[in-house]
């Protein structure tokens, strides 16, 4: 059992590092009490899935669902809403492109969908990246409209120094001195001066963030609500992991706030509008995936 979460701590400090590609670890079922059905293990209330390429397991919000459209196209379903059978992946774009080139994705999808009657668009990795970016920016926009997002350096600094800030993000074109000022305020508020705790520089400019939030001149973003910060973190984590832009240090922003396990998955669960090519694009294990379980939720 994990210790109860500390609701006063920033979500990203310090993230536990897991095996694999530097992703933080989520709790798994205790080794001495294995789940009778691994495909139905849960992290908290989240169902666990297995990546059809790596064989690793993770909770659904950390993975990308691929859906089979009626016309036989494989489409990204990042919100997991599309009906029917789905297959889950948790690899990076580079790994996915390699799997497509070597024919591994086609074989894995054929096992997952129990058919070879489908077409893989060569642009699938780009479509997934665009969909993940749009999903992450949409999540920021939703949180902004619900009033959980802080913008403006003075307001963020005040909340940071008071220990209220759960996560901190910077636009890619934010000034370094502005970033350092807010990062320091955050460390002071959490009594971790001298640590590496700092906000995460997102791979999008202030202009893109302003459009996403429906605000003007969004250079820095802070969240004080823990649930909202977790939702934003999960959306950003999937996107950044896929494009290979995860922070390398152990104490960077909440995007890797302990949300990502060392895994991924396949099965038929309910999945997102079989991705409608969205948004501005920002820019292994060795076991075969075999234990597919049909699910109807």
Q: How would you concisely characterize the structure shown here?
A:
With 297 residues, the chain is α+β, with helices and mostly antiparallel strands. It is 31% helix and 12% strand.
**Helix content, binned percent:** 25-40%
What is the overall pLDDT average? 77
Q: Can you list the strand order of the major beta sheet?
A: 5-4-6-11
- Stretches where pLDDT falls below 50 for ≥5 residues? 1-5, 13-43, 248-297
Question: What features would you describe in this structure?
Answer:
By secondary structure, this protein is an alpha+beta fold. It is built from 7 helices and 11 strands. The chain has helices spanning 93-102, 104-113, 124-145, 153-161, 176-189, 206-213, 226-243; strands at residues 42-43, 46-50, 57-59, 64-68, 74-76, 86-89, 149-151, 167-170, 200-201, 220-223, 266-267. A 4-stranded antiparallel β-sheet has the order 5-4-6-11. Strands 7-10-8-9 form a 4-stranded mixed β-sheet. Helix 5 (176-189) links the parallel strand 8 (167-170) and strand 9. The two termini are 27 Å apart.
Keywords, separated by commas or semicolons:
297 residues; alpha+beta; 7 helices; 31% helix
Note the topology.
Layout: E1 42-43, E2 46-50, E3 57-59, E4 64-68, E5 74-76, E6 86-89, H1 93-102, H2 104-113, H3 124-145, E7 149-151, H4 153-161, E8 167-170, H5 176-189, E9 200-201, H6 206-213, E10 220-223, H7 226-243, E11 266-267
Helix pairs in contact: 3-7, 4-5
